[in-house]
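Researcher: I'm comparing several assemblies side by side, and this is the next one on my list. It has 1404 residues spread over two chains. Same procedure as the others: predict the full complex and return the structure.
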Amino acid sequence: MCASVKYNIRGPALIPRMKTKHRIYYITLFSIVLLGLIATGMFQFWPHSIESSNDWNVEKRSVRDVPVVRLPADSPIPERGDLSCRMHTCFDVYRCGFNPKNKIKVYIYALKKYVDDFGVSVSNTISREYNELLMAISDSDYYTDDINRACLFVPSIDVLNQNTLRIKETAQALAQLSRWDRGSNHLLFNMLPGGPPDYNTALDVPRDRALLAGGGFSTWTYRQGYDVSIPVYSPLSAEVDLPEKGPGPRQYFLLSSQVGLHPEYREDLEALQVKHGESVLVLDKCTNLSEGVLSVRKRCHKHQVFDYPQVLQEATFCVVLRGARLGQAVLSDVLQAGCVPVVIADSYILPFSEVLDWKRASVVVPEEKMSDVYSILQSIPQRQIEEMQRQLFMEPARRENWSAANHQMNSLIWPREQRDSQIINDRIYPYAAISYEEWNDPPVVKWGSVSNPLFLPLIPPQSQGFTAIVLTYDRVESLFRVITEVSKVPSLSKLLVVWNNQNKNPPEDSLWPKIRVPLKVVRTAENKLSNRFFPYDEIETEAVLAIDDDIIMLTSDELQFGYEVWREFPDRLVGYPGRLHLWDHEMNKWKYESEWTNEVSMVLTGAAFYHKYFNYLYTYKMPGDIKNWVDAHMNCEDIAMNFLVANVTGKAVIKVTPRKKFKCPECTAIDGLSLDQTHMVERSECINKFASVFGTMPLKVVEHRADPVLYKDDFPEKLKSFPNIGSL
Amino acid sequence: MQSWRRRKSLWLALSASWLLLVLLGGFSLLRLALPPRPQPGASQGWPRWLDAELLQSFSQPRELPEDTASPPQAPHGGSCNWEACFDTSKCRGDGLKVFVYPAVGPISETHRRILASIEGSRFHTFSPAGACLLLLLSLDAQTGECSSMPLQWNRGRNHLVLRLYPAACPRTFQLGQAMVAEASPTVDSFRPGFDVALPFLPEAHPLRGGAPGQLRQHSPQPGVALLALEEERGGWRTADTGSSACPWDGRCEQDPGPGQTQHQETLPNATFCLISGHRPEAASRFLQALQAGCIPVLLSPRWELPFSEVIDWTKAAIVADERLPLQVLAALQEMSPARVLALRQQTQFLWDAYFSSVEKVIHTTLEVIQDRIFGTSAHPSLLWNSPPGALLALSTFSTSPQDFPFYHLQQGSRPEGRFSALIWVAPPGQPPLKLIQAVAGSQHCAQILVLWSNERPLPSRWPETAVPLTVIDGHRKVSDRFYPYSTIRTDAILSLDARSSLSTSEVDFAFLVWQSFPERMVGFLTLSHFWDEAHGGWGYTAERTNEFSMVLTTAAFYHRYYHTLFTHSLPKALRTLADEAPTCVDVLMNFIVAAVTKLPPIKVPYGKQRQEAAPLAPGGPGPRSKPQAPAPDCINQLAAAFGHMPLLSSCLRLDPVLFKDPVSVQRKKYRSLEKP
């Protein structure tokens, strides 16, 4: 439709006849109209094509209008929860099919109102929180509206609070869901389990094989690897926005804010307060509040009134004591306030304990040690306390991350249903699981830290040898000399020539030097510098020697020693001439330095040993456009490699032997001073460019180089392992 | 006129288009003007209720206070968890103290050695009353080593029943409240946080030191099989995953493809090892895979992975659903090289750290229980899951990873820029005035500690130094030198003998090098070990050779953590050995550091001339021409005690960048290092 309109207006008959002055004006005008048309047209298509008119009605619906389902008194009841359930026994993984994105699909049953034979409703239709929770699932990537594609089913029957529902009838309602099938793959959310007098720690509704995301699990009811422990939602935390508070000492050392405490516990806490005075604050309900003040938002100590939950921010540690139930809503308040929770609830399964490392953000104290709690907390070093506070901080940070993807999340203190889905997702697709660090490490740690890909201390056996990769274009004579020289190195196990010239064929087989190791020639499709760092299948050793086709001055001892040094530092670049980066204070940028200084931060890859994994990283994981940039400029591939390795390992290069330059003594100085200077400028530019792409300067400066143990020692030369170690 | 007409037609066109616009877009605009409505995607999803605002909360705020507590629950019938069944009040003081029930009647050699190993450890106590954990070894039913109910049983409270081997004793008595540490328990009987899951040890498992890991290189060899499958009779074979759709499913294997190599191996040689089936076979395969550095792919294991309480197995193994074979295979084939690399190394690290010997398994078990008792001062997860592992990173030293020498990279921290010099003054006891001046001259020196370890009275006057000087009156024992004195406040220690002689620039350069290698020892003079064919044992020499494996601690930088390790984790017998044969202490210290780092020490240059006359050689003041033959037994005793030879050789020395180069002296920062 848009297209036809467009054509009419911009009819070829009209525009060409106009004067240029007007023409511009009209064209502008038309374009605006056009844009307007397209825009409205878009709107026309957009919402309408997705929203059927039927939905328009759905939107208007009220919760009171949902269909009513009558449950006969004799309709089937599911069996009680099966405590032996595990993922591989009770979860029907076939329903999850194979999803290339390794994401499970979640279906939500439509909302119904259940009544018994007498028309009395079974429970409240739906609570505000459960509605928000379902809304969040429905907006997430996990959601599907196709019941046949779903692998996880979420009933819309609200069982968050067991006290508000009739147990038998709710179970019957569950059993008649269309895909119930003994409850497998069904996920129930419950926060307040059990009821008086014995308060079970898991939902009492018979649910057969259904998974339970429950608040307040104990070790006895929790099915490890099957159920998910979730925090009990606190309505207060959602209402109140607390400012973030950094790590550091607070006014109170220990604070207790719960009101419905068992008298025994309260006695214990008050005894602590008497003993330690000001640093302990035990709060209780306020008795003498004036009218109109929300009692839930106030706490009192004697006659002093405190705002709740704000007062939590004034304490380093906050007590989270069990009540009749193990899961306490106060935990959410305490976490939001950035107070380190002291959990005193024996056998309580902390929320998301399967993936969150609570040791880093909380203190768990056995109930019988309640009276020692103060001394236990005192024994924690201040630094560790600050680390815990920082860890708590991370919770809000992650919360924002999650909620950025989902606006509805803001109202919930935890992105709980997403986490649940993620945990269950990890169980189904464990090989795509999120790692411990991703769940637990604060962003601060991630920033400065590196995780070395070659972290295992290991000295590879000498017998493995190394593969020499010679990048060449057309200097055949020089290439042959390099091949002959390198082949003298005892540990060489293979020689790979990368023929980078597409216009010329490599010399015939018979012309190549005869050497004792296999020699392979790889022809490239394009003359690119990055071909030197391609992870060729032909590389069979871990150690790679990158060498230019004009490096003929390195002695066999020098190369063999380089390989031995690499074996001791397999995660580093081991090279000969060293170079340095410097901060130019005048120009306010980095500068490349090839002077013979006392420091080294890079080695030239004209001849350097490194692990072949770095070839993979260079080719496939180089950040930003560095790789293309290098190929376009035909320069700085060595600097890029130095950056890459230093960035991923956090370690400095190893320069070996006194070698300072690659220019052979007999070569005449063709490249004069001016060429040298443009070279320096270009190289400096590379450093600045790479530093900005990496977002940091990863290179590490050191003042040492590696020499043979007896280098230049007063010792008979013939007894030295590497007597001919070369010169500058 | 014409232009007007033209303009008219233009206006016509314009208004027509505007009309169109209003017609087409009006409704949408109208709808936009309406109150905000849900965004796309909501259509088929969860509806936005009109009266959502009116919905009630699942728990009314006033309802919460009603939730008053009932008295603490008693443990559910018979079932135990940590809080209910373990009495931590007995465990005050310095951590876990373990009492082991002595064996009744004749015992096997293994049993005796296990007992000896526990008795030699830092956990052991001889008094059952002072112990917080009572250990009951339940070893082998066949040899009749089953114990009857022990004396202090007390319904099993604070007891750990250790069943190392599968053929364990039948339960002759009720376990009651005792914890059970057994090999790969089923998930149904395992009580998380209470019981301990052990690995399934083969009968011939080495007692200490351990079977070395088989991993020789970080990344898988090109062309190595992707997947190894278990054979009957305990071998492995590699599978051709290219053609077969379900390589581990018996039905598909009727036509073995040409690429399928059939050969028996005791240890698998592949990137991944598929482990299905039930314990105990699967569990013993699992351990083999770890040793071989083959990433275990566990198909729906129904048994608890060993030490799952502390070890993050997601970093070393893949747990997959046996019902999705194709997905698993695809996932393995597509796994990124980075992930494969990390998993591979982790399997090997875990093997070496916790599984390679019976002793390590027992110590890990005790460490797990100690961590439960310690609560907040337990090992952080990082210490358990990255080298060198929690057995070698003592949580009694610190719980902050950056205090250790091993985790600076992961933590984004760096070692402190200053060191403490610890000068040991042995008889005859001359105050090392020159040495103090040279060391104090270093800009990195934070303090000097003099460990006065001889009979002569302390001199009253010490030289004036820029840094604080503290004198410690030692106990005349060599092991004093490696005591973790609380006065040492820096990460780095420069350990010196009063007779050493060093220049300030030597100290400066060595310290700079140490900062790059904070987990290693950086020294000036070296020893090297060798296998003596003639005597069939290890030997070591102070002669100058092309390689070295130890540095003398009479002049060396190292992290202060090694003092803690030396004093608190070494078996007492080894410290005694060092006290009795002082030349042995250098070897011992090098053994410790090498066992932890699995790397050789680092040598830095040392003034040549003085080296000739240096009294730094082991054994003290003897002239260099007559090198004191170091007691060869020392190194063999240590190798026996460690269970293996941890020392590694290095063929390099770290020199200043311009060391002895024919360039202008003016350029050189450490020119005094080159002076003859």
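Model: For your comparison table: The longest strand of chain B covers residues 445-452.
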